[in-house]
Write a structure and sequence with these properties.
With 244 residues, the protein is mainly β. The chain has two helices and twelve strands; from the N terminus they run αββββββαββββββ. It is elongated and about 55 Å long. The chain starts with a helix and ends with a strand.
Amino acid sequence: MASARLLQRTLLLLLIGGLMAACAAPSGAPPTATPIPTSAPGGESTPPAPPAPTPTAAPSDAAAGDRIAYGVISEESEARYRVREQLVGFDLPNDAVGTTRAITGVLVLEGNRVVPEASRFQVDLRTLTSDQARRDNFIRRNTLQADRYPYAVFVPREIQGLPLPLPTSGEHTFRLIGDLTIRETTRPVTWEVTARVEGDRVIAQARTQFTFADFGLEPPRVPVVLSVDETIRLEVDAVLQRQP
């Protein structure tokens, strides 16, 4: 009887021990998920996006052409007007010529163009003199009203026929187009220019013409003058030096 009870107790302990061992056993780690590649609509895998490109700086405007300037050497230059007139006591007409060296200015070029906002020439009309003092006084006081409007101003805007950049030698013929202001009137004019280039110097002869009426000017009327042609011819002999 005692042996039977001992056997039952032993079997019960073995059963309890087995159950405890089963509960204490570690469960297996979950499997690592494998990423599934993204597919393009066509079924192919989408390649990784390339790195963003590094921005590239735009080319400098300086490559279009360097800016150079030529200034007038006043003491080597002269401006003139010419008007055909008939004088009392003369059988043939002659030219009334008024001159001045009071001419200043600068021509600025950039690449193959004129820079109008930096270019300008002017002549002091108060200094014009001819061979007739009475003519000069009338022109200064009445025709030009030089005390009120002392300067004739020319602003160049375009060059036609000149190879640019400017050559360092040789003779060239071209047109210089721009706006001329006399008194309160501004009109476009075209100068016919012949220039000789000698290194950093330019020796130029420029010619243009217009009428008294174009600028609302009064022709000179003095006792020694019988008649005056309507056309005024302007001439400029200028020496220009390249500025540093």
